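FW: tagging you since you asked about this chain on Friday. Here's the raw sequence from the shared folder, copied in full. Didn't touch anything.
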Amino acid sequence: MPSFDFHCEANGQTIEVMLKMHEELCTWGELCARKGLPLGDTPADAPIAKVFTSAVVMDKKRMGSGHRSVDMSFSGKSSMFSNDPR
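HL: got it, structure written out here
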């Protein structure tokens, strides 16, 4: 399951939660119930917003067998579109 960050403007908190792709959370109360957190002073109906952050780059050590390493170095040239037969 992918994880998503949700931010609540009412209290300034950002919480990470794992959700299935089809699941949605819209309020602070739903988020707290999902994570097992107390509401605190924030109203349960306070809106939350999904925060989009940068993606994580996985390396071969984290992916297990069957995946080749990816060279993330930048040379300024693309070997994928080059006419060089290397």
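FW: Residues 8 and 48 are 5 Å apart (CA to CA).
HL: agreed, and The beta strands are 3-8, 14-18, 48-51.
FW: great, closing this out.
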